[in-house]
Design goal:
Layout lengths: L1 H27 L2 H19 L11 H9 L12 H6 L3 E5 L2 E8 L4 E8 H14 L8 H4 L13 H13 L4 E2 L5 E2 L3 H14 L4
Length: 203
């Protein structure tokens, strides 16, 4: 079993490093790179899941530290400085099919969370892609509220704003002050949303 265990460790390390590369591509605005590297990371992740209990074993302490410190979208490095600590927010995670936004309450001096389903993110991405055609700058009033494609139900605006905050942080949309937003790389936008979603750390 030692060989299987070592192989599992290699797979976990490879997946973590690929996620780091995808995050670097996001920071550089290389959305084509994000899509390709995130697809590789998913392939390795699927391989881990299908390779039996040895490959699905929990990562080592060193691996968990590496994943925590990885420069992933929405997961800045931790520091000991109180000032820097507060500047880490908002942070974003995946919890199943939920996008989790973690922010800091100055009044209560503690973290709080908002969440939005992945279905809301996909519906919003479609609406933003339509609104942002030909480089248009659009306001949220032009887009919201949006509706679930499956049943036509209205998605609460606060969920859409969770998604917008994440899209801003990853650079997938640009904000132009009070004028509104634009989609800088429209042709790659939808694929990039899905690919960067896959790189989010899981909570």
């Amino acid at each position: 079993m030692a060989i299987e265990s070592r192989a599992a460790t290699i797979l976990h390390d490879t997946e973590a490093k690929l996620r780091e590369l995808a995050a670097e591509a996001a920071s550089a605005g290389d959305y084509a790179g994000i899509i390709k590297v995130a697809a590789w990371a998913k392939a390795v992740s699927d391989l881990v899941k299908s390779s039996g209990p040895e490959a699905r074993a929990k990562p080592t302490t060193a691996q968990r530290v590496a994943r925590t410190d990885a420069k992933l979208p929405g997961a800045p490095r931790r520091t000991t400085s109180r000032t820097t600590h507060r500047k880490e927010y908002p942070r974003f995670f995946r919890r199943g099919e939920q996008l989790i936004r973690v922010a800091w309450s100055k009044r209560d001096k503690k973290e709080y969370q908002h969440k939005a389903p992945y279905s809301a993110l996909k519906a919003l991405a479609m609406a933003l892609a339509e609104a942002g055609k030909e480089g248009r700058v659009f306001s949220t009033d032009e887009v919201l509220p949006i509706r679930e494609p499956a049943d036509g139900s209205e998605i609460p605006n606060y969920q859409s704003y969770v998604c917008i905050a994440w899209l801003k942080q990853t650079g997938l949309i640009d904000q132009h002050g009070r004028q509104g937003y634009s989609v800088p790389r429209l042709a790659e936008f939808k694929d990039a949303v899905e690919s960067i979603w896959r790189t989010l750390p899981k909570q």
